Amino acid sequence: MARKESADTAANPGRLKQIALTYKMTRRADSKVGLVVAGVGIVTFGVFLAVGFLINHPIYLGILGFILAFLAMAIVFGRRAEKAAFGQMEGQPGAAAAVLENVGRGWTTTPAVAMNRNQDVVHRAVGKAGIVLVGEGNPNRVKSLLAAEKKRMQRIVIDVPVHDIIVGDGEGQVPLKKIRTTMLKLPRVLAGPQVTAANDRLRAMGDLMSNMPLPKGPMPKGMRMPRGGKMR
């Protein structure tokens, strides 16, 4: 029991520090986030408290209003923080890989399975919807990268559907912030064992960047393929 309490005590400062860092990051991109979140909390609590006085239950409605105000503040803050994070990532090479890593459980992400010297890149995610190839970079060049990788996937895993997404704001493209939603809307056609089998076959096949150390998240600008590196 004592160990559990000490673990919870040690974890709380970490959570608070993370929230503080997230707030600072969000405030750099959204200077009004503090006022908006506080306003939502005050209005929500005020409405419930006023209703409580009207029906002669101010304590009960006040407590309920406080809880719901806190929940509303957390939701609004989360959405604005997410928007700010996407705003900072947009345009950076490898940003889509960072998004794919957070799609959710059941997805296995492999960043940079194909790349050219112009830093156009294709990432891969495997889940119950099949294989999703996400390309970012120049749309015209990315199309050829995606086509080649899609053809390769269809040779290796014949019975698995392969979807492709081009990151961008143009026609037929998917904005960075909508990648997760788009992937989650894909029909689930594979069972768990089929997903595992597909991942095993793809790992056995190997990837372009499997022997190349990459930092997590967006890749730094200026990163280039090594000379003599095989490109797909």
Description:
There is one protein chain. With 232 residues, the protein is an alpha+beta fold. It folds into 2 domains: 2-89, no CATH class; 95-205, no CATH class. The protein contains 7 helices and 4 strands. Strands 1-2-3-4 form a 4-stranded mixed sheet. Helix 2 packs antiparallel against helix 3. The model is unreliable at 1-7, 208-217 and 219-232 (pLDDT under 50).
**If you average the pLDDT, what whole number results?**
79
Order of helices and strands: HHHHEEEHEHH
Instruction: Report the structural category.
Output: alpha+beta
Poorly predicted regions are 1-7, 208-217, 219-232
Report the total helices.
7
Walk across the major sheet and give the strand order: 1-2-3-4
Number of DSSP strand runs: 4
Helical proportion, percent range:
40-55%
What gross morphology would you assign?
Answer: elongated
Number of domains: 2
Strand percentage lies at 5-15%
Radius of gyration: 23 Å
Main beta sheet? 4 strands, mixed
Distance between the termini: 55 Å
Architecture blueprint of SSEs:
Layout: H1 2-29, H2 33-54, H3 58-89, H4 95-100, E1 108-115, E2 121-127, E3 130-136, H5 139-156, E4 162-166, H6 179-184, H7 192-205
Question: How would you describe this structure in keywords?
Answer:
single chain; 232 residues; alpha+beta; four-stranded mixed sheet; 7 helices; elongated; disordered N terminus
Q: Could you give a quick summary of the protein structure above?
A:
By secondary structure, the chain is α+β, with helices and mostly antiparallel strands. The protein has helices at residues 2-29, 33-54, 58-89, 95-100, 139-156, 179-184, 192-205; strands at residues 108-115, 121-127, 130-136, 162-166.
